[in-house]
Amino acid sequence: MQLSIVEGLGAPDSRVLSCPPRYNGTPSQELLVIRENHQTGRRSIDVLRWGLIPHRCKEPSGGRKPINAKAETVARLPTFGDAYARRRCIVPVNGFYEWQVTKAGKQPYAVAMANGEPFALGAMWENWWSQQTAQWIRTFCILTTPANTLVSRIHNRMPLILSADDYGRWLGKEPDPADLLGVYCSAPMAIWPVSNRVNSPTNDDAAVLAGIDTSVRGEPM
Q: Per-residue pLDDT tens for 87-126?
């Protein structure tokens, strides 16, 4: 499901094969990410929790755990600045979901590459030491950009999508690869409406990606 990205990055790890596929990954779940150790240069596939616990946080159970960070402000905000400069990672996916507000309610859409190939979302990760369990808690959040012309039909934001040629820079030591934070071209992408089953994380099967007819659901607000 995510092998082409993993093989291209030279991150040897069996977890991409042993972990069950996710069709409806949601915040607070543990998902696969690709990281690089800047001391050894080794890349690895790791399981991190979606929802960033900032390193300044005193208690992981309290406070906000951002799942997204705006690309336009990430470098200068204290919550994200250090992680963005030093701990960027890649989330390999086959697609993502966005919701459109309509008169009939929020309509979910799936967004993917038209050819079905996996792609990479730009993200950053953080360490948090738990004195209670004497273990590191590792979390991540995904950067977002203004929507491209395709996604803007339903929503004004979208995840940061990285081009394959830029994976190395994103994972590397460069503190602010600002030119990689642009809006991804809509030409190779596809979008389609899906059922409200995707609104529940318990529905994590391939059927959530099935397209539906929205002609009876009303016009956008």
A: 999 999 999 999 999 988 999 999 999 999 999 999 999 9
Task: From residue 23, give the alpha-carbon distance in Å to each of 26, 35, 97, 171.
Answer: 10, 22, 10, 25
- The domains found in the chain, sorted by start residue, are 3-95+116-183 (3.90.1680.10)
In the prediction, which pLDDT does 130 show?
76
pTM of the model: 0.90
Decide the pairing of beta strands 157-159 and 68-70.
unpaired
Residue with tokens 């150790």: 37
